[in-house]
Amino acid sequence: MLKKKLGICGCTMTKLLTVSLGSTMKLKGIPSTATLLTLNLLVFLVLLSLVLTTYKLQPGEDPQSITAVTFTGDSTRYLAVGTAEEVEQEDKVDDAVPTKGRILVFEVLENGQLQLVASTVVKGGVICIKEFQGMLLCGINEHVCMYSWKSENASSESKLTLECSHRGFTFLVSLAVQGEFILAGDLMKSMTLLRYKTAENKIEEIARDTSMDMLCTAEAIDDETFIGANNNGSLYTLIKNTDPTNEDAGKQLQWSGGWNLGEPVNRFKHGKRANAELKALCICIHIARTDRFLNFLFLLSKGTLVMANQDGDAPAVPKLLFATVSGTIGVIATLTAERYELLHQLEVNMTKVIKGVGGLDHAS
C-alpha cells in the first residue's frame, strides 16, 4: 500500500481502447479512437459518433497532445494541439527524438467546425501541453516552454509568444499543474518540481527526484504530494521536503511509498465530484490520427466517470482517476489514519499466514 495513506482500486473495461487523458472542455467537436493519442476524462461507452470536421496535418506530422485553454485577455475558449514530425531513420542515432513540431491553436465554432487561428513551429515534438495561468505550458523534447497569447497591435491577430523556458531534462513525457507549481515527468529522470515566478517571468527548479526511474506519467495530488507511474507497472509517491536539515535535502523529492499495479498507466486525471453540475449528456474531447487527419467527433454518453463525493472524515476520499494501457480504470484515494492502520495491519497479518511464491519473503 502506498504510504501517505493512499488507496487504489480499479476495474477493467473490455471496450476501452488505449487511453491518454487531457483537460476538460465542453465543446461540440470530438475525435474517434483509431489511434487514440489524447482525450479529456475517461470515455468508456460510445453511443454516437458523428464526424463534424477534419483538419489535415502536414506529411509526416503526428498529433501528440491536446488541451483546452483560455488565454489572458481573451475570453474565447481555444483548443491547442501539439504535434511532432517523424524523424527520418537513415543516418540518425537518436531517431526516436523529433526535431520539429507545431503548436496549433483552433477556435471551435458554433456549428462544431474548427478554425485554425495560429500555428507556431518549434524545434522538437510537443509531447505534452497544459493550460497555466492564462498561458500555454508545453513540454517540447527536453524543454518546458511557456507561451503567452499576444498581438503586436490592436489591429493585428494574436499569436503565441515564448515567454520563458526551462531545460535540464532527457525527454519530457508529462506535465502537471498545481497552483504556481509545475510537475515535469521525464522519460529517464523521474519527476522534477518547478515553480513559475511571475515577477521575474521565469521557471525555476524547486526539487527533483534523484533516482533514475523511467516514467510513463505523473500528477500532483496536492502541493506537497506527487504520484508517478513507471514502465515496470508500478506506482510511487514522492513528497516535498518541507523541513529539510540542509539545503541539499530541501532540493530533493523524498520517496514516500509504492505499489506494484502490474501494468503501465497512461495518464492520471483529477476527476469530477459526483455532486458537481452534470448535464444530461457528457461531451468529451479526443484527438485521433487517421491517415494524418485530425478527426473531431461527437462522443456522447449518458454520464461520465466520476468519483463519489466523500467528506473529509470519510474512510476514503477520492483524489485521482487513472487509466492503463490494457483498459483498466482506477481511483487513487486518500485514507484516514485509522483506516490506513487497519489495512496496513491486515497486510502484515496476511504475510504471516500466506507464504510467498517459491518461499520468497513478502518483504523482500
Record keyword descriptors for this entry.
single chain; 364 residues; mainly beta; Methylamine Dehydrogenase, Chain H; five-stranded antiparallel beta sheet; four-stranded antiparallel beta sheet; 2 helices; 27 strands; 50% strand
Describe the protein.
The structure is a single chain. With 364 residues, this protein is mainly beta. It has one domain (6-339): 7 Propeller (Methylamine Dehydrogenase, Chain H). 6% of the residues lie in helices and 50% in strands. The chain has helices spanning 247-250, 337-353, and strands at residues 6-12, 36-39, 48-56, 61-70, 77-85, 101-108, 114-122, 126-132, 135-140, 143-150, 159-167, 172-178, 181-186, 190-197, 202-208, 215-220, 225-230, 234-240, 253-260, 265-269, 272-273, 282-283, 286-290, 293-301, 306-307, 316-324, 328-335. The strands form 7 sheets. Strands 2, 3, 22, 23 and 24 form a 5-stranded antiparallel beta sheet that branches. A 4-stranded antiparallel beta sheet has the order 1-27-26-20. A hairpin with a 2-residue loop joins β8 (126-132) and β9.
Topology:
Elements: E1 6-12, E2 36-39, E3 48-56, E4 61-70, E5 77-85, E6 101-108, E7 114-122, E8 126-132, E9 135-140, E10 143-150, E11 159-167, E12 172-178, E13 181-186, E14 190-197, E15 202-208, E16 215-220, E17 225-230, E18 234-240, H1 247-250, E19 253-260, E20 265-269, E21 272-273, E22 282-283, E23 286-290, E24 293-301, E25 306-307, E26 316-324, E27 328-335, H2 337-353
Parallel strand pairs: 21-25
Antiparallel strand pairs: 1-27, 2-23, 3-24, 4-5, 5-6, 6-7, 8-9, 9-10, 10-11, 12-13, 13-14, 14-15, 16-17, 17-18, 18-19, 20-26, 22-24, 23-24, 26-27
